[in-house]
Design a protein that fits this description.
Blueprint lengths: L17 E14 L2 E8 L2 E7 L4 H6 L7 E10 L12 E12 L16 H6 L1 H4 L3 H23 L3 E2 L17 E3 L7 E3 L5 H9 L4 E9 L11 E10 L3 H20 L8 E4 H8 L13 E2 H4 L2 H14 L9 E7 L7 H12 L9 E5 L5 E3 L7 H10 L7 E7 L1 H18 L10 E5 L4 E4 L4 E4 L28 E6 L2 E8 L4 H10 L4 H14 L7 E7 H8 L30 H7 L7
Parallel strand pairs: 3-5, 6-9, 11-17
Antiparallel strand pairs: 1-2, 1-4, 2-3, 4-5, 7-8, 9-10, 10-22, 12-13, 13-16, 14-15, 14-16, 17-20, 18-19, 20-21, 21-22
The structure holds aspartic acid.
């Protein structure tokens, strides 16, 4: 037997017990004839005391950091207690020990405040995973998955695996492809999600399916994306949108209770996509704080617009002239911003990522007076009415942006989040969930010059709008039975009620610019299946990595994945992707034509 207890287990109540521990040497401290060793395993750290009688043995078998050590001894009360760790009241008076394996000196210190940089820790991820803070994240991940599985199991969901080697049907993201040796010249694709399989399972009658499953998308890796990531993927039959929202609201509440001890009693807020865009400038609003957007131009009379026009010409804000949108936020308590601070904010909105031509601001002082960057052009009463429209309060700083609709909305949203961050309104330990519903079915892609599915091509229009699929001029107005769950400004889950009739699905493919032949070639299996009694169904998938990261109070999903890839999509530990042998290439009958 290697051990009788773990390194996190023993307490003062175990005093005088003869025990054996096994673990890794965290630190060695020698005081004259006495040596202290901190022994670590997954469960904690226990202090070992090697007395004088073991000195010779220690000299013969010198210990080093990360050695694997087995030690037998007696639990005894420490004279110098450490209240910071659960085993801090005891130590083990070692009577015998054995080095089970040696270790070379690790490339970084294996402790919370390590000296290892990101790259080094990723290269030696197996050592990084020994660190307590990384271990905590991996434990949290397991707790989330366990809670989700328990909940779904009790709701009658079945975990059913779906294949990873499938057919390439790129829509949205690019597929990762795998050459087939047995079918030269042909490729499998790795699934971007199990979407069509879970729908087929509904047709097969497995009316409640789930899977904690890997998905693969060959996208350019923007910040904090992984080419392979995990979803909690779910589908149900004989349900309406309401059933799905209730079931998965229940799941997320259960996860919160199990993992964070937070009880959500109230029903989650539901916000239409239109309201999310209007009041928050994006479809995943962070509702931990207010500071909603006010659309000034759309509310303004023609006369007011002329005032803006005057201002623009005079101050060089050319973009105000033909601004599609003029919008504002009122930032609480910031009316005392200095010139330096407002200049800095102006530079902030002018950065290419935000792309605004400038920033207009008005300080609403506590005495009720208003001072703005455009005082020359507005009298006090106009500014007052502006402040009123923005529902500003004395003490607020009103920030105004103008320009093209989409860009300005996005910029206002970013500015709101930035100010929220600066003012400490985005607390990582506060959690605000909501549903965003009533998404548009399509969005127009300038790049492809056609409508593309906003969610995916299997999403159903609102039942009373299905007929609009017959009229191309109406595509832009159709709303979908689609929904996203949003947590602290992040989309953590998204899904829809699906199309389940062949003719509607065919119309949908046609609306997306797919010919009958192409639709048949890519999705013939699904269209065929719809003819054999497809039940009404719908589902959702949660971004498991992201959910874990937010619950763990972190921005980075990488911290919650045991073996993640870096921003260039590389596994630096394995050094993958890599070239393969000529022999392998020959078997696959692949020859390169690298540019
Ligand atoms: N398969 C979808 C996705 O990956 C989610 C769903 O509609 O259930 O986004």
């Amino acid at each position: 037997m290697y051990r009788t207890h773990t390194c996190g287990e023993l307490r003062i109540t175990d005093k005088n017990k003869l025990i054996t521990l096994a673990g890794w040497v965290q630190t060695i401290r020698k005081f004259g004839a006495i040596t202290f060793v901190d022994l670590r395993d997954r469960y904690g750290i226990t202090q070992l005391l090697f007395g004088e009688s073991l000195n010779n043995l220690l000299d013969e078998n010198p210990l080093g950091r990360e050695f694997v050590l087995q030690a037998t001894g007696t639990v005894s009360e420490r004279s110098n207690k450490n209240p910071n760790i659960p085993t801090g009241e005891i130590e083990i008076i070692v009577s015998s020990f054995k080095v089970l394996n040696k270790s070379v000196v690790p490339p970084f210190t294996i402790q919370d405040d390590t000296d290892g940089g990101d790259d080094l820790r990723m290269k030696y991820r197996y050592l990084d995973l020994r660190r307590n803070i990384v271990k905590k994240n991996i434990e949290l991940r397991y707790a989330v998955s366990r809670a989700a599985r328990n909940y779904l199991h009790h709701q009658g969901f079945m975990d059913i695996e779906t294949p990873f080697l499938i057919k390439s049907t790129p829509e949205g993201a690019r597929d990762f492809v795998v050459p087939s040796r047995m079918n030269p010249g042909q490729f499998y694709a790795l699934p971007q999600s199990p979407q069509t399989f879970k729908q087929l399972l509904m047709i097969s009658g497995y009316d409640r399916y789930y899977q904690v499953v890997k998905c693969f998308r060959d996208e350019d890796l923007r910040a904090d994306r992984q080419p392979e990531f995990t979803q909690i993927d779910c589908e149900m039959s004989f349900v309406e949108q309401e059933d799905i929202l209730n079931t998965f609201e229940g799941m997320v509440k259960f996860i919160f209770k199990e993992v964070k001890g937070i009880e959500y009693t109230e029903k989650l807020e539901r916000m239409s996509w239109e309201d999310a865009m209007r009041y928050y400038g994006n479809d995943k609003p962070d509702i931990r704080f207010g500071m909603k957007l006010t659309e000034l131009k759309s509310n303004y009379s023609g006369e007011d617009r002329n005032i803006f026009k005057k201002e623009i010409e005079a101050s060089g804000f050319k973009v105000f002239n033909d601004a599609e949108l003029v919008g504002a936020i009122s930032v609480p308590g910031c009316c005392d911003y200095t010139r330096k601070q407002t200049d800095e904010l102006t530079e902030w909105v002018k950065r290419p990522q935000i792309g605004m031509a400038g920033l207009v601001f008005a300080k609403y002082h506590s005495d009720g007076s208003l001072k703005s960057s455009v005082d020359k052009f507005f009298d006090e009463s106009t500014l007052k009415s502006l402040a009123e429209k923005c529902q500003a309060k004395p003490g607020d700083l009103i920030l105004i942006l103008a320009g093209k609709e989409e860009r300005t909305r996005k910029a206002l949203s970013e500015l709101r989040l930035e100010m929220g961050e600066r003012l400490g309104f985005r607390k990582p330990d506060e959690f605000k969930l909501l549903w965003v519903v009533d998404f548009p079915l399509f969005e127009f892609s300038e790049e492809d010059n056609r409508y593309v599915a906003r969610h995916h091509p299997f999403t159903s229009p609102k039942p009373n709008e299905i007929h609009l699929l017959d009229d191309a001029s109406q595509y832009g107005t159709i709303k979908a039975n689609a929904y996203d769950m949003v947590l602290n400004g992040n989309e953590i889950g998204g899904g829809s009620i699906r199309i389940f009739q062949r003719d509607v699905q065919e119309k949908m493919f046609a609306a997306l610019g797919m010919s009958k032949e192409e639709a048949q070639h890519k999705f013939g299996f699904l269209l065929g299946a719809f003819e054999y009694g497809a039940p009404p169904h719908g589902g959702i998938a949660f971004g498991f990595d992201r959910l874990c990261a937010i619950l763990g109070g972190s921005e980075s999903i990488r911290d919650f994945i045991a073996f993640p890839k870096n921003n260039a999509g590389r596994d630096v530990m394995l050094d993958a992707p890599s070239t393969i042998d000529d022999k392998q290439l020959e078997e696959l009958q692949i020859r390169f034509n690298l540019k």
